[in-house]
Amino acid sequence: MSKIFLIFSIVFFVMWILTSFGSNLPLLGKLGRLPGDIHFNVSNFSFYFPLGTSILLSILLTVVLRLISRI
User: Fold this and answer.
1) Smallest Cα–Cα separation from 60: which of 25, 19, 21, 28?
2) Ordered per-residue pLDDT tens for the chain, 71 residues
């Protein structure tokens, strides 16, 4: 139980750091504007679906969680 709590604490801390300072970092500043992201603007309506960002984050989280599960 303590191992799970430690992992979640580290994940939430990293997420806080990335959301606070991520726009200043060169790679994370472009995270919401990847080529696969869908964005429509029609007069007073705006639709944004981060498909490319979601796929990239899914792959990264899968790799990280598989590495953590081997420990």
Assistant:
1) 28
2) 777 788 888 888 887 777 666 666 666 666 667 788 888 889 899 888 888 888 888 898 898 888 888 76
Three-state SS for 46?
strand
C-alpha closest to that of 17 among 1, 30, 4, 28: 28
| pTM for this prediction | 0.57
Q: What is the DSSP letter of 25?
A: S
Cβ neighbours for 39, distance < 8 A, ≥ 6 positions apart: 46, 47, 48, 49
Token pair 């598989």 is found at 66
